[in-house]
Amino acid sequence: EEPHGAAPVDFLQELPSCQTARRRRGGSQERRPALLGTAGSRGAAARALPQERGELADRPAREHPDCMAERRNIRDSQQAKTEHLSRWKKWRRASSKSLKKALNEVKGLSSYLVLWRHDIHSIEGKFGTGIQSYFSFLRFLVLLNFIIFILMFSFVTLPSIISKYGIFNSTIAYSSPKNIEDICTIYEPSGNKGLVYFYTYLKDLLSGTGFLEVTSLFYGYYSIDAEWISIMRYNLPLAYLLTTFAYLALSFLWIIKRSVEGFKQNLVHDADPFQSYCNKVFAGWDFCITDPHAARLKHRSLQYELQMDLQEEKLKQKIAERRTEEVLRIYSLRIFINIIVIAILSGCFYSIYRVTVFSQENSSDTDNANSQVNLLVQYLPSMVITLANFIGPLIFSFLIRFEDYTPAFEIKLTLLRCVFVRLANIGVLLFSLWSQISDCDSDKCKPCGYNYKLYPCWESDVGQEMYKLMIFDFIVILAVALFMDFPRKLLVAHCPCKLIQWFGHKEFEISDNVLEIIYGQTICWIGTFFSPLLPAIATIKYFIIFYVKKIVLIHTCKPAARPVRASSSNFFFLAVLLIGLLLACVPLGVSIARIPSSKACGPFRNFNTSWEVVPDTILQFPTGLQQVLFGMASEAFAVPLFVILCIIMFYVMALARAHKRVVEQLREQLVLESRDKMFLIRKIAEAQRH
């Protein structure tokens, strides 16, 4: 027996890891070199051990992987060593510790300043992380819209207000449009004059007309070419366009950043389900919790997570055990249901198109301009869009139950189907408006380049449509909560009718609620260019919706029969939001670069299109800088840049594949080490028996 000597070679060859390596090499002829290599690697590890110990010795005692008694001894030895240091080193070490402690305290206090921190924590414990991810997503949109509002107000609205009221000795510079007929510059907003009834103000507040049309809420208010604040010239048209690009870029980068974080969590979870179980069972508890109520919330959260994992594993096992006849039946049913979904989508698109065309053709009837019928005709597109947005998700949520998907995939597929309904509705509405603005018959567009008689300031008209869609969507959300959710709760609780009891309490549909706020956010992104203060309205809207949805969830809904995991939901919510942002960039790009800007209002009235302010500004730069900027915008610069980006992308993809292979090897190595430990335990037990 050699307790401190090397193990025999034959014994090492019996280890599962050695047998696996030998089997992969395809024979035993490389056995000896492998052992030598193993010894060499052990030597390298032995040489690296003192260095690691030296690095560990410099760390605080609480970071050492030892028991409490050993940590106390390490702390005492570290304190003894500090007595022999110079005053400068003692002061520097004490300052470093104080700074770290202060930063940790500030970080701990800042966590209490997080918006709705306690509310979201409570929702997570009662209803699971899937529903918690919806409210976290809603909080993200509140912060995003608030930042967008700060951008638009600081660089567009505030300079205009300062100039118009003459603050800080500011003046306004107006430039008359050149080579434009006078008829194109006529714009008379329909502001309220004289005695006005209360319901007129209410109608204006809901439709964005009347007194709201002449405020800073809409594009037509900003009819300033340049501002002089003291001795500084402020180019408002350029600031307006650059701020639009800035909030779109900010939204894109922020969504990408959050998506990467969710993608990492989703990737780690999907890579090894067993690791997810181990993390929840052995490392899922927060030992800093001292409040019994918080402990119950954390317990419920872990329970929902484990329930979700077990249910998905059960569904995967059920899918693996399906027979051929059952697989054919399920796929046939899915094909049939998808045909029904396509028919519903086609019907929604066609209905919205016909209603929008009808509204545009009949709402300009001057003989019926003040009648209630004409007002109803003007609101027909918003009503039909809202009806399609309300009925479509209900039908899709009902049909998805028969397709036998996992809960996470059900949410994704339902979201994708609803995205086509909601975002295509906005596209159809904008297409109809632009067809009336630019594609006009006879000589309506000849003097100005657009239908100036019907739309003298078409940007404000588009902003009013986006404003009406947002307000109408907010009213519908409140109406559903007040007149559907709460009455259903009361009927189920107090009425013994079997039909009502069959409906039961409402479940919180994550896909439908997420699509509601993504639809509203897409409207905000599009409408901010035409209505600069629309993000402020969106911020207030989502702030109120958070509390409305929270009350509805707690008092009228029951926990979902099939809870949803937050890791996959967060990533997919942001992916759908990114689709909405990219689709919002399309109409904005067309409006900025293709459609002629209004000549009677707005900061771009001296330019044929809004984009022309950029080359016009560049022409005022020095000649050398002009050549550099125009060169960067040419094909000679774009093609090499594209090639370089492609090379970088392929390199990153290759690096990711290499890292993935290393991770797989390390995971296999961990499995082999666990088998070696079990093998050694069995050998020790056998030796003790003999």
Automatic annotation (TrEMBL):
It comes from Thryothorus ludovicianus (Carolina wren). It is a multi-pass membrane protein. Residues 1-64 are annotated as: Disordered. This is Transmembrane channel-like protein. Pfam families: TMC. Keywords: Membrane, Transmembrane, Transmembrane helix. Belongs to the TMC family. The gene is Tmc7. It comes from the Eukaryota. InterPro entries: TMC (IPR038900), TMC_dom (IPR012496). GO terms for cellular component: plasma membrane. It is found in: Membrane. Residues 50-64 have a biased composition (Basic and acidic residues).
